[in-house]
Amino acid sequence: MHIPDAAIELRFIRSGGPGGQNVNKVASAVQLRCDLKAWPALPERVRARLRVLAGRRLTDDDVIVISAQRFRTQEHNKRDAFERLETLVTEARIEPKIRRATKPTRASKERRLEGKQQRSQVKAARGRIKGED
Asked: Are 67 and 33 spatial neighbours (Cβ–Cβ below 8 Å)?
């Protein structure tokens, strides 16, 4: 699915963690913001699943915020953020299967009861044998 450019906003911020003096000078972390309202071609069912999958990353304004700071370069973090957004959208496009409740068959009930009887006989045979004291 093509994500419109109007729906995406990139911000480059300084990332935390180790990196020496360079970490205070270079904004290598990426904050990708995807506005679901600016994406009219997105079907409503997919949009609803996307809201659920996004979880805490979704703001009150229907904006998905993905922060990427795993790598040391801006380009790698940018690519990582886009890949994570694509993965999220791909998962949201998959229709969940509707579960239909079924009843166990008569044969399966009988097999279960037979198994329980056999197990009961095995356990009953483990006791002390009377008359050998």
From this structure: no
pTM score:
0.67
* Residues 6+ positions from 130 with CB-CB distance below 8 Å: none
Write out pLDDT tens, residues 70-121. 888 888 988 999 999 889 988 888 888 999 999 999 999 999 999 999 999 9
Can you say how many angstroms the Cα of residue 82 is from the centroid of all Cα atoms in its chain? 16
Residues 6+ apart with CB under 8 A from 44: none
CATH number for the region 5-93 comes to 3.30.160.20
Q: Which amino acid is at 33?
A: R
| C-beta separation of 8 from 38 below 8 A | no
